[in-house]
Amino acid sequence: MLADGVFRRYFIASVISIAGTTVTVVVLPILIYQLTHSPLQTSLLASIEVAPYLLFGLVAGPLADRTDRKRLMVICNLLSGAVMATIPAASALGVLYLPVIYGAAVANALCFVFFDAADFGALPALAGREHLVAATSLLSTAGSFLLVVGPAVGAVLATTVGAATAITLDAASFVIAAAVLTTISRPFQSERTCPVGRRRDEAKEGLRFVWRHPVLRTLTIAGFGNSLTFGAVMGLLVVYAVRQLGLTDHDARIGLLYSAGAAGALVAGVTLPVLLRRLPPARLTQLSLAASAALLVGMAATTRVAMALPIYLVWSWTKQLTIINGITYRQLVTPDHLQARVNVVGRMVAWGGQPLGAALGGVLAQTLDVRATFLIMVGGVVVATVVAVIGLRDLSPTDAASPTAVTGKVDQPGG
């Protein structure tokens, strides 16, 4: 894939942006916990970062399908760089308060909604559908590798230069990524014949496509339960490290937890193509969800960092397998002119559980403890597993097999 010069530039832009974000993914919750020492306010970060996707996803999808995806992605990156720069700027001026951090997080998340909608359609156009699995795996692997290193670097920076100052790297990465994207000459749309209708009808078309496809529908609903639990875990990871594993909120080992999770995601990106050659996507989702539930019980049981790290690594592997398996499947069976709408709908539903899980986890951890909270949140993955098993049990072997096996049947608008 990297032999293709156009895809290589797209890949470089993605890597640069992700590199900055991997620092912020650990630094921002550390910063909030240092300011508030509140599990609820720390976990709410995960909620507010996803909320814009749920509110504006149905607008972003049709817009990304009807507009120049490259221009939209560049603008969103530049805006993200500007809003993230407000955090170190406010810190330098001595006016860094919680509303400033939440405001920057919400604005950055809003930019991501529109960037992500355009990016979903851009990848199949730039890589080609025949290379989509390999391209997705490569991007996932690279991003996961950076997430292994970035959080550890971010935690060190938080203890040296300060958490707010460390976010400067993220702001700069968005601007550099935007500059690299402008050098790509290949169209970010493989089809230029997207019919333009009323935005409400265009959004409904994406919803209909997901609902009428039996595999997409079930994978998306199961993804909601997966993200419910994921939101609680990610929202409370710093709190888990401090209150259950006995670390301080300035301990650089907090970054190791995030790195372990990224290592699991890295393994998922590498192993997904291999697993899909042996298992149908539906079966892979069923197995990964069931394993995720069991591993979260293990996380809740341990109080030692040395045990928590490998358990969290494997848990993250199963969680990421569920996510990228569903994303790859959606992209493969969706026609180009519906890519943004269908994938935004899938993302909205699958991510819809994350803010709810983060908020619920924060409330539970505020009144109970982290162990009890994690055990309660296991229920989200258990329900998702049941949905995946029941929803896919009546599919024929062809329908449940590879995405290409069903492309011909559903590759029509609203099919």
Task: Describe the structure in brief.
This protein is mainly alpha-helical and 415 residues long. The chain is built from 17 helices and no strands. Helices cover 83% and strands 0% of the residues.
Plain-language structure description:
By secondary structure, the chain is an all-alpha fold. The chain contains 17 helices and no strands. Helix 3 runs antiparallel to helix 6, helix 5 (about 130-165) runs antiparallel to helix 10 and helix 12 (about 305-335) packs parallel to helix 17 (about 405-410). The longest helix is centred in the middle third of the chain and has 35 residues, at about 130-165.
- Low-pLDDT parts are 192-197, 396-415
How much of the sequence is in beta strands?
under 5%
Taking the alpha carbons of the first and last residues, their distance comes to 31 Å
Nearest-angstrom radius of gyration? 20 Å
How would you summarize the topology of this molecule?
Blueprint: H1 5-36, H2 39-66, H3 69-93, H4 98-127, H5 132-166, H6 168-181, H7 199-212, H8 214-235, H9 237-244, H10 254-276, H11 281-301, H12 305-333, H13 339-351, H14 353-367, H15 370-392, H16 397-400, H17 403-410
Helix pairs in contact: 1-2, 1-4, 1-5, 1-6, 2-4, 2-7, 2-8, 2-13, 2-14, 3-4, 3-6, 4-13, 5-10, 5-12, 7-13, 8-12, 8-13, 8-14, 8-15, 10-12, 11-12, 11-15, 12-17, 14-15
